[in-house]
Amino acid sequence: MTDKQTNEYSAKGYATHASDQPLEPFAFNRRGLRNDDVLIEISHCGICHSDLHTARNDWGGSKYPVVPGHEIVGHVRAVGEDVSDFAEGDRVAIGCMVEACRECDHCAQGLEQYCLNGMTGTYGGKERRDGSITHGGYSDKIVVRKEFVLRIPDGLDMGAAAPLLCAGITTYSPLKQWNVGPGSKVAVVGLGGLGHMGVKLAAAMGAEVTVLTRTEDKLPDARALGAKNILLSTDRAAMKAAANSFDMILNTVPVPHPVTHYMPLLKIDCAQVLVGVIGVLPEMHSGHLLGRRILTGSGIGGIAETQEMLDFCAEENILPEIEMIAMQDVNNAYDRMEKSDVRYRFVIDMETLA
Predict the structure, then answer these.
(1) pTM recorded for the entire structure
(2) C-alpha dihedral over 213, 166, 121, 175, to 10 degrees?
């Protein structure tokens, strides 16, 4: 519905108004279509740990009200005058960013996520043209600049595909950056929303995948997802025997922990890539790096790489393991997510918003 006076779209969704408040129904306006915009009717939105952290201001700086959600899929309902590559009815997606300068060196390399002038997050970001705060996908519609709209390939289930827009690209990007392929030996630390996608993607790329975990009860799931081995990080003898064995360690654990515990497992000039934790890590000893082992981090991918990931998942029939929920159950989902009580990703069915 468009307001005839302002040309804005009336939207409904769920928002939180303070860090200690639950998400609740929220009515707001989306901007009217600019010449380069696409209006998307949202069918599904995945739930990410970042949604919970932002809603509860765990990282500081949250701007309320917060409408979370950056794993968005839906259908095009209208386009601006200058948009020719999308049409009504197209299956599309929006990930973690909705704008970047598109002029800096990083943007020119397809690294909009690392825009030197700051990319604009799908929620809680500052819109570059009018300064408004962006609202995410826990809503019935969204208006986004065409360059940041992605296509959902035929064959990918819309609902199940939603977490690919964050969990998928967050794990795909470092695997590609570190040249994972046939013959690679990859260890994945953690088997949650990110970790299970890391296992699936690395295995599909041809790598031999080992899941690093503290308990043996993860073994059946790890193998079902594509891992060949499991390594108990609590088994000192097994960890010592596995030294110098891996070409890459993908660390998906979302809370601060002693990451240097895993460094001896790497071969020379190979990397442990942190994709889960954002926070102050326990103090590390630099001796863990002296074997020319690398400790680094990675965010999401750029637009072209995200589209590449979606196409790869369609070709390889890779989808996240999801639990579909109603919009009204989102607060319970947050509580369950904090207890790791989900296998492996929640997705909201936006039809329930009505």
Answers:
(1) 0.95
(2) 70
